[in-house]
Specification:
single chain, alpha+beta, UDP-n-acetylglucosamine1-carboxyvinyl-transferase, Chain, 2 domains, four-stranded mixed sheet, about 25% strand, globular
Length: about 450
């Protein structure tokens, strides 16, 4: 192994992975739940919080508006938002993560106003914010662009109402749920997102005293408390995206991997895409086992037609697993069309897989044709976003030779302690992203 460069992994491929993995808490549930803690003026405890760059940034953001964050352990924090100053949101922190938009609902509910710098996040295509604004405006807020950012005010308080979301946006659903929980009256959300992180947020809001019915369906009814919520203790659910990523990783690397504590209701939607490549999993108690030595082979449609693996709103195959699906396709016998319907830039990373020896045709921004199996070889690549970065790490671990993956702070925004956790399975990885102090910032 060569010495790693800053903000990089050096990966020696070709080693079978076997052993036990415990999934982290869900990043996509933790971020709105940190925001939801602002709905209470009393201490809120969140457990099983993943130690990630994005969660650290979110904790620092709520500190910038006056909340106190006290670390009880590596994965447990106490948040106390007794008094808040909604004009103090840190510009640089907002630019780091798209989840900063999730502070709009809670801060409007508590303070009646806020100024929000432009949210950042992965550059994977157009990511509109209109649905957030439309939902909050329906509850009585006024929003306007303000010097490149956005200002919101609601001098008369939020009120419950009927809202038809113009798209089933996950974060807009979460923002509306949080605002509605503290509003006066009943809110009915139609065309709501159904993802597991939405369901987990609903469970937290329920433990804070709000009445939330229908989470996991496209119609959610929230009976607001008309003021601050209560003081719960909430445990973040396991990360279904991380679990899906590990299933794909285990399948292409050849050994048997046991993933503990997997909620079984997430398995069928996750496998709806991955099973098209012949991946098999089995349930043992509360664990999910990916058997070793799987013969990966594309499962053709009737008549021998080339199958399409495509993403969709839950319970469809998650868009965040599309990148992993492309890598699995490179290691599966046969031809597959992968259709990424939601983000027009997510598949642009495939040129890096082609440089590693993959047989891929990029048809347009949303579709690739993958023929396999391809014998991948190590090379130097750069991670463009969280999910593509994890896919490139998966490719490097099943490739021949050594790869250097740069820009890995992107991966570490969404996957916790990968070097140590995958090393325990037999992976040979050195290095880490720059700025570990960023992970520790927020709730020191």
């Amino acid at each position: 192994m060569q010495t790693s460069f800053p903000d990089s992994y050096v990966v020696e491929g070709g080693h079978p992975l076997s052993g036990v993995l415990k999934p982290s808490g869900s990043k996509n549930a933790a971020l709105p739940e940190i925001a939801a803690a602002l709905l209470s003026d009393r201490p809120v405890v969140i457990d099983n919080l993943p130690a990630l760059r994005d969660t650290a940034a979110m904790l620092a953001l709520i500190e910038s508006v006056g909340a106190s964050v006290r670390r009880l352990s590596d994965h447990e924090v106490e948040i106390h938002a007794g008094t808040l100053e909604p004009g103090g949101l840190d510009l640089d922190l907002c630019r780091r993560i798209r989840a900063s938009i999730l502070l709009a609902g809670p801060l409007l509910a508590r303070c009646g106003r806020l100024v929000l710098p432009p949210p950042g996040g992965d550059v994977i295509g157009r990511r509109r914010l209109d649905t957030h604004f439309l939902a909050l405006e329906a509850m009585g807020a006024r929003a306007r662009e303000d010097g490149g950012g956005y200002s919101f005010e609601c001098p008369d308080g939020l009120r419950g109402t009927y809202i038809l979301l113009d798209e089933p946006s996950v974060t807009a659903t979460e923002n509306a749920m949080m605002a509605a929980s503290s509003a006066s009256g009943t809110t009915v959300l139609y065309n709501a997102a159904c993802e597991p992180n939405v369901q987990d947020l609903a469970a937290m809001l329920g433990s804070m005293g709000a009445s939330v019915e229908g989470a996991g369906t496209n119609r959610i009814v929230i009976n607001g408390l008309g003021g601050p919520l209560g003081s719960p203790r909430h445990e973040v659910a396991p990360d279904h995206i991380e679990i899906g990523s590990f299933i794909g990783l285990a399948a292409v690397c050849g050994g048997e991997v046991r993933i503990t504590g997997v909620p079984w209701d997430i398995v069928a939607p996750t496998m709806s895409g991955l099973s098209r490549f012949g991946i098999e999993v089995r349930r043992e108690g509360g664990d999910l086992v990916v058997p070793g030595g799987q013969a990966l082979e594309v499962q053709y449609d009737r008549g021998g037609a080339i199958p399409t693996v495509y993403d969709g709103p839950w319970p469809g195959f998650s868009p965040d697993l599309t990148s992993t699906a492309v890598v699995v396709a490179t290691q599966s016998r046969g031809t597959t069309l992968v259709f990424e319907k939601m983000f027009e830039s997510r598949l642009f990373f495939v040129d890096k897989l082609v440089a590693m020896g993959a047989s891929i045709i990029l048809c347009d921004p949303h579709r690739v044709v993958v023929s396999g199996p391809s014998r991948l070889h190590g090379t130097e690549v750069s991670s463009p976003d969280i999910r593509a970065g994890m896919a490139l790490l998966t490719a490097a671990l099943c490739a021949d030779g050594t790869s250097v993956i740069r820009n890995v702070h992107q991966i570490e925004r969404g996957y916790q302690d990968l070097v140590a956790r995958l090393g325990a399975l037999g992976a040979v990885i050195e290095g880490s992203g720059q700025g570990r102090e960023d992970v520790e910032r927020g709730g020191g």
